[in-house]
């Protein structure tokens, strides 16, 4: 007797029960390596600026342009990259993006003027923007419903801790080479991510939910079967999650158009999620790009300031992993609120710190909770949209958040720092963190422990109606 083909609803239900087994761990490692490469490329701006500020006699405006150049590329590259991710797949965009930013970053070592360096960093940012949100998309669409946040937390922990690498390289270069060479070394090492391209091409699978959206159900069936074999699970073709199935049926009636992301309910959801991401990124960019400069202003030497900024990033990696574990158990909103609140306390302590111990506590709170907030902060964005809009929605959200935090904020920060000092800056960050978290607490949706189909459904009312309609259709005739 011929075995019936599994339905899309069945395949998604079976995928959502796969535990963290070896193939899933391999996916986590590959995506963590992608983020590691990205972190190094983005993170070299701080150490480079610390050297060039004196070597090239950079003005306040010059520092602002150097700080935002790659971020400007990231922001402008995100919309076309998001549309490509929904059109040609997540896998291809990751591989091409790494190729682009790695090759262009190496060219930065050959720059002889600020203008040349700004153009190179902008072009590298286009590749970075294509890659940056995709690991969140992958893990949201691939991993067990009850393990999404912890898997993102582990991979993001590597990303955040990896920002230590450019600071270590920068500190080594500053202590070892003359300034004319010290700033070039990080750019030369930017070629290392090219070695990732072959493993990604061989072993990175395409997102199964993207494949289903494109009608490539047989590929998903083969993937799910292999995962079940590895997990010693039966191939149950009758298994269906009714709520996820109803959400999937609703999604089939909706159009894949950018304008739909800007309509209710996705506009409201997106604005709330983007707000909290913006607050987190403001703290991140200020510490990443101007962390060494802020610490130097407090009396630390250049090499020590660069190294301490890197240590804060490593601490944040631990915070990321723990946040993922906690949010899968206690919910996104509660854990996000705690992290944002304690990060704000850290910023206030930075503003009033007058001795080493207070500065150390401030650095721990700001890094562990503030820089460690991103697993759930970014996963929450991905969980607001259905599969056919998720790529565009995530990229649009990232574009808005990074536009405000990485371009607007960093453009004005050197002037604000010169005018008001670092204490006012840290107080302002604390206020921003709380202000952007309040809407999530009041009106945000809890998306923990449910499938991404349910999380991204147009409305709970429509979902309930679709479930009831389907139940009536399959009732036996009297």
Query: How many angstroms separate the termini?
Result: 30 Å
SSE order in H/E notation? HHHHHHHHHHHHHHHHHHHHHHHHH
CATH homologous superfamily assignment? MFS general substrate transporter like domains
Class derived from helix and strand content: mainly alpha
CATH architecture: Up-down Bundle
Q: Assign the CATH topology.
A: Growth Hormone, Chain: A
Would you report the number of β strands? 0
Shape: globular
How large is the share of residues in beta strands? Answer: under 5%
Q: What low-confidence regions span 5 or more consecutive residues with pLDDT below 50?
A: 472-478
Rg is 23 Å
* Number of helices, where a helix is a run of at least 4 consecutive DSSP H or I residues: 25
Total domain modules: 1
CATH class: Mainly Alpha
Largest sheet: none
**What share of residues is helical?**
over 70%
pLDDT averaged residue by residue: 83
Write the layout of secondary structure elements.
Blueprint: H1 8-15, H2 22-43, H3 45-55, H4 60-87, H5 90-107, H6 114-131, H7 134-142, H8 148-162, H9 164-176, H10 179-182, H11 184-188, H12 197-203, H13 208-213, H14 217-231, H15 242-252, H16 258-261, H17 266-297, H18 302-330, H19 332-352, H20 356-371, H21 374-382, H22 387-420, H23 422-443, H24 452-455, H25 460-474
Helix pairs in contact: 1-14, 2-5, 2-8, 2-9, 3-9, 3-17, 4-5, 4-6, 4-22, 5-6, 7-8, 8-18, 8-21, 9-18, 15-25, 17-18, 17-21, 17-22, 17-23, 18-19, 18-20, 19-20, 19-23, 22-23
Quick synopsis:
The chain contains 25 helices and no strands. It has 478 residues and is mostly helical.
């Amino acid at each position: 007797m011929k075995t019936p083909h599994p339905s899309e609803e069945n395949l998604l239900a079976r995928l959502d029960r796969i535990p963290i087994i070896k193939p899933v761990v391999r996916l986590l490692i590959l995506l963590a390596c992608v983020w590691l490469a990205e972190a190094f490329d983005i993170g070299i701006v701080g150490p480079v600026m610390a050297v060039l500020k004196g070597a090239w006699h950079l003005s306040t405006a010059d520092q602002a342009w150097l700080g935002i150049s790659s971020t400007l590329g990231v922001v402008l590259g995100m919309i076309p990259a998001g549309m490509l991710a929904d059109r040609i797949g997540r896998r291809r965009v990751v591989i091409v993006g790494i190729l682009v930013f790695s090759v262009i970053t190496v060219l930065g070592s050959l720059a002889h003027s600020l203008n040349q360096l700004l153009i190179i960093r902008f072009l590298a940012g286009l590749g970075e923007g294509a890659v940056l949100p995709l690991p969140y998309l992958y893990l949201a669409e691939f991993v067990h419903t009850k393990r999404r946040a912890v898997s993102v937390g582990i991979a993001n922990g590597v990303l955040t801790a990896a920002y230590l690498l450019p600071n270590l390289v920068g500190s080594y270069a500053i202590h070892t080479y003359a300034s004319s060479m010290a700033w070039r070394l990080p750019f030369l090492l930017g070629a290392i991510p090219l070695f990732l391209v072959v493993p990604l091409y061989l072993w990175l699978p395409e997102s199964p939910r993207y494949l289903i959206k494109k009608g490539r159900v047989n590929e998903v069936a083969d993937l799910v079967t292999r995962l079940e074999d590895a997990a010693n699970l039966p191939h149950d073709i009758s298994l269906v999650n009714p709520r996820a199935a109803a959400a999937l049926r609703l999604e089939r009636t909706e159009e894949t158009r950018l304008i739909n992301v800007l309509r209710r309910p996705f506009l409201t959801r997106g604005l709330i999620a983007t707000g909290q991401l913006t607050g987190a990124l403001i703290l991140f960019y200020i510490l990443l790009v101007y962390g060494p400069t802020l610490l130097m202003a407090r009396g630390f030497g250049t090499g020590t300031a660069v190294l301490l900024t890197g240590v804060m990033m490593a601490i944040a990696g631990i915070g990321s992993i723990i946040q993922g574990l906690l949010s899968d158990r206690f919910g996104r909103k509660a854990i996000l609120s705690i992290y944002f609140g304690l990060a704000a306390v850290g910023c206030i302590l930075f503003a009033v710190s007058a001795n080493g111990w207070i500065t150390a506590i401030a650095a721990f709170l700001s890094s562990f909770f503030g820089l460690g907030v991103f697993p759930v902060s970014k996963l929450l964005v991905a969980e607001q949209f259905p599969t056919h809009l998720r790529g565009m929605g995530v990229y649009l959200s990232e574009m808005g958040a990074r536009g405000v935090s990485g371009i607007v904020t960093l453009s004005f920060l050197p002037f604000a720092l010169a005018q008001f000092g670092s204490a006012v800056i840290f107080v302002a960050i604390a206020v921003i963190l709380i202000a952007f978290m309040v809407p999530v607490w009041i009106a945000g949706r809890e998306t923990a422990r449910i499938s991404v189909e349910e999380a991204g459904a147009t409305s709970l009312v429509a979902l309930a109606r679709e479930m009831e309609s389907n139940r009536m259709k399959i009732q036996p005739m009297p």
